[in-house]
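During the no-cost extension, the postdoctoral fellow (Dr. R.K.) reprocessed legacy sequence entries with the updated structure-token encoder. One reprocessed record is reproduced below for audit purposes.
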Amino acid sequence: MKVIIPVAGAGVDLRPHSYTQPKALIPLAGNTVLGIIVDQLKNVGLTEFIFVIGYLGEKIQHYIAEKHPDITAHFVLQENRKGVGHAVHLTKEIVNGDQILISLGDTICEYDIPSILHNPNSMIGVRKTDNPRDFGVVELNADETKIESAIEKPLIPKSNLAMVGIYKIVESNLLFQCIEKNIADGVVSQKQITITDALACMIEAGVIFEPFKVDNWFDAGNKNSLLASNAILIKKYGAKPNPQEFEGSVIIDPVSIGSGCTIKHSIIGPNVTLGENTIIERSIVNNSIVGAFTNLSDIVLTDSLVGGDTLLKGKKRILNVGENTTIDLG
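Re-encoded structure tokens follow.
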């Protein structure tokens, strides 16, 4: 089985960070979004990966070469972002008829991967959502063992079961045929060549798709969802720092502190990820992600996303305050 991970998106909702860093490489819980996905799949024995890259794709290549040299990695360039279906179609020659597992590069899912791999049928990961109009949606048969239809962002959803971006495809040749047919017929959804429309074509051709439940689903598409995901995942993946290493500082779990960090006279946490070689002095940081090689001093950060190689300085004040006093330093 080969793994396809589309990571060509420009990450518009994560600007200005995505101007210089692919959103799949934004720090998260002591790792990156892409790193967590690759680790999950490596841990069950998958070794061949196809990354569909685009904007800042060279950074994806460098990251994989540095952090995951033990996998067989292919890189396919998607110059024009025409949708996930189009991205997958570009991998046809490398897939060469093998089974594939497609995992979107901006979404982390927790699910029973071994049971998915051992199931003989094609499968789609699903989860109930309160906003089905924002997703591809599936309808199941009466006993909920088979997917009967797949529709991309329906105006009037007949189901609240959203596809979360994990697809196991046994009949890969038919998938590519369906994508090619949709391209030839001009079948698009929201002006995109979608994987959903290709799956619908396969279902019409008689392919059996089984649903599988995704236990947890973490989105990294925008700042708020990224910080919320960090707060949860840091408990599972975050490094456990030794508070005694940091002079005059208080570390409030959960936090993930990268190697080579210097922290002095500060309060860090909860829900903080610090990239490697970050320097923090006389500051308070909570519920935030701070990139590598960043320098913070005399500042309070909350609910913040700070890119790497950044210098942030606040104002240092010396106060002599008596009783019954109100001071606003805002």
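The longest strand covers residues 161-169. The two ends are 56 Å apart (CA to CA). The remaining legacy entries will be reprocessed before the final report is submitted.
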